[in-house]
Amino acid sequence: MTASRPISGATELDYFVEGMDCPTCVRKIEGALERMPGTNNARTNLTKQMLTLTLDETQTPRATLEKTLRSLGHEPRLMNGEHGDRAHTPRAWYRTNQGRLVLTTGALLVLAFLFGLLEPALAAWGYVAATLIGTWPLAKKAVAAARAGDPFSINTLVTLAAIGALTIGEGAEAAVVVFFFAIGELLEGIAVGRARSGIQALAALAPKTAFVLKKGKVFEVPADTLQVGQFVQVQPGGRVPADGTILEGQSSLDDSPVTGESVPVFKTVGDTVYAGSINTDGVLKIHVDTAASDNTIARIIHLVEQAEANKAPVARFIDRFSRVYTPIVVLIATLTAILPPLLLNGSWNEWLYKGVALLLIGCPCALVLSVPAAITSGISAGARRGLLIKGGAALEAIGSVKTIAFDKTGTLTAGQPKVTDVVPFGTEAGEVLRLAAAVEQGSSHPLAKAILGHIQGVELPAVQEARALPGRAVLATLDGRELAVGSPRYAREQGALTAEVEVEAQKLEAQGKTVVTLLDGARILGLIAIRDEPRADAREAIVQLKALGVRPLMLTGDNARTAQAIAQDLGLDVQAELLPEDKLRLIEDLKRQGGVAMVGDGINDAPALAASDVGIAMGGGTDVALETADAALLRHEVGGVTELVQLSRATMRNIKQNVIFAVGLKAVFLVTTLLGITGLWPAILSDTGATALVTANALRLLRFQGGGVQTKTKVQRQPVPNAGTL
Predict the structure, then answer these.
(1) 3-class DSSP state for residue 119?
(2) Active site residues
(3) Closest residue by Cα to residue 241 from 260, 224, 258, 228
(4) What is the pLDDT of residues 340-361, one digit of tens each?
(5) CATH tag for 418-531 (out of 3.40.1110.10, 3.60.10.10, 1.10.8.60, 3.40.50.720)
């Protein structure tokens, strides 16, 4: 909803809102708050059933706000404040207001039927009682929704239908209608709860306690009190209590609860570990890198909970459609009830009956639920497999892209390049490495890390005036000499690339190695060759993307020979020697040919990730990755990109099926009702039944596994947009 100007001195309140488990409920609550003075920054969260707002109690007292929510049929529970709770445990369905309504109306319906076996007159009164008791809360919600600006709510339709059925003497069918509707509402709540529980269960993965190392001793403390910079010890079989870095020890860790990685991953000193991972076979000393509220599990939960705010285009369309659709249904039902008797001398009782049935058939519950149920399930299923998706819009877009562009280093390759060759010119090989490492000190670039890692243990001289020319070179001054570590292209621009050096560089590049040059002014001191091997699953992932009809493309700043060698090995097109601005231009060109996704590390590729239709960060547990990209892969596997496309397409198929179920059942019962074949209770069953089908179908997505591609699609090779002279 649209937020008004911030109000000075207002209080921020967090409520758990019982029964806020469908999109209609959310829209109804937001409409009421929009008309309430003193409310600001109101945010509803369907997944958590939370309402957060800023309230100026001089304009609207807190008691008035809570009374309004109750009138809409929702019990608010304050989660903060002087008397608020900090946590909430959802109640069993039969303890909720909706559960009690189902049990009450169901019991009255059974009693009325039993009385009918003894005395029909008693049965009639029993059905009337069941209808009135079941309709009363619906009528209150309808009135409250009308006051909040939504006169044609679902509750209004059912209330009118139930009262209309009683008016024409159809008490038994009226009672069945109310009972079925109550069951449908209950099913919606259970469905959202199922999708919600799969993600919230992640919170239980992190252990409640941790073993902190302090002054050579081990102390057991609550895990949520851990602070950044502390050291913890994890025994074999124990769960890692916080995101951190291994300082001592080595072990295989089962990351499956967090990343979806199917087999334990061997990790040693310097590797990152996740809270909730299971340590299988070694004692580990870990440096705590993040607080409990900011660890990977917390990020996943927060991301999924907030994803609904970014609705898919199809969800926004359904929302707009339902706002127009419901008033039209009321108008058609009214005309059906009165025109035939007035103009065609039809029976009032018969056509009133059909008009009431049309009201029930027109209930858009299943249609409104069809999209968010599938989107929530899809995002939840992805999170379980380490595929983090920021919202329905991203989930919908990923499956429709025509091209997926990959960065090379750290994305298609393992991101752990090693120095393979050093070719000196006029100096020693060791001196070439020492000077290059001195210039690269402090750099986080993978190639810089390879050079620094290769010369570990060697004391490096201090340099001055270090600076970077993005995509070209790193420069620094040492003892009055201006040194540069850069690409052969940079050396060529400086006029330093002689024929002899060019030949040596080409030999190394032809072997798929990246070559960097060390320059002293305009003189080359040596070449350093570095190779970064492709990820183990990259080739198979590229094959699968092609089978899905998606064109994979490598975009890299690396030299053309090295890039071509790796691209040929993996089987995809390539554009090499690209500066950051070249990548942006290529992304824009590709977007004109159809949707394009960009896969990168989420830091160096942030501009390209932001410019693409869908940005996907590889190994996306970092702040920058989650902020820049539309989706992130916790597993460092290219196959995760394929799974994202498969999940998106599975979700969109699910949505189409749901819409067909919702509309198809209504169309069938519309025809049978007008022909006089079916009556009131089948009419409401068309909506309740569709709701049950939509719910069950959406929950199937929670079992999504991804994996191999069955469909073989002939892929047309498209021309790569010209990158210009580089």
Answers:
(1) coil
(2) 407
(3) 224
(4) 998 888 888 888 888 888 887 8
(5) 3.40.1110.10
